[in-house]
Amino acid sequence: MRTRRRWGRSAILGTIGGLAVASAAAAGGLVPEDVGPAVDEGSVVIAAPDGTPLASGGSATPYTLVLPEGSTCPGDSANDDWRVQTFLIPASHDPGQVEYGVIGPEGTQFPLFAFDTKPYAHQLLPVNAGPGMEARIPLLPELTFTIFPPDAVAPGRYRIGVACTYFRQTARYWDAEIEIVADPDDEPAQFTWTAVDAPADAIAAQTLEPESRRWPYIAGAAALAIALGGGWWMVRRRSQNPPSSTSSRAGALR
What we know:
By secondary structure, the protein is an alpha+beta fold. It contains three helices and 15 strands. It has helices at residues 9-23, 77-80, 211-240; strands spanning 39-43, 45-47, 54-58, 64-66, 72-73, 82-90, 100-101, 104-105, 113-114, 135-136, 143-144, 156-166, 169-182, 191-196, 203-204. Strands 1, 3, 6, 12, 13, 14 and 15 form a seven-stranded mixed beta sheet that branches. Strands 2-4 form a two-stranded antiparallel ribbon. A two-stranded antiparallel sheet has the order 5-10. Helix 1 packs across helix 3.
């Protein structure tokens, strides 16, 4: 039987405090100007950290997203206030309509998470020589689904991807579709995923290396997710449900 550790208020707030301070300006409620309709710039490839395309995996499978070569945002962060975001949204949702708050997509949509369990949101672009120049999007880090508690992500199809945003608005995005299936034998999030329209050379994650070599790595990631990610998750759910509200929002993506 699993036991759930209860975290104190200070520990929970500490989990996301650094992120909130760093990205508050980028997520402000005021939008200086309209960036126009969002542009679908194409697909991302779901890949292992070494760049090998993945066809499928479990919640503990390390992965990353590979953008088309030369992908850019309309400007950099230092001169033009552009940011790089990630998202996990139901397949029926439009990535171009996603709005981003302090900790990523708002509502029942979510960011992707780096392997240190921090949301990959409001990332800075390399500094250009001046304003108004296209800014190259850096390589994404190793990502993980271990942050999600069991049953948090309902089975179904989802879009995962990367977006360029100006304050809260999306201007460009790249995405891929995955099918998520509940699997009680999977640890820690109890789901597996399959890439829809994966490249012909994509492989199943299980063939990357022997499970005996992967297990210590998976166990460490799961422990870190519980210690750090659990606090983030609790604060996010609390922030989405004001104390005065008589209704509660389900944690699962629907």
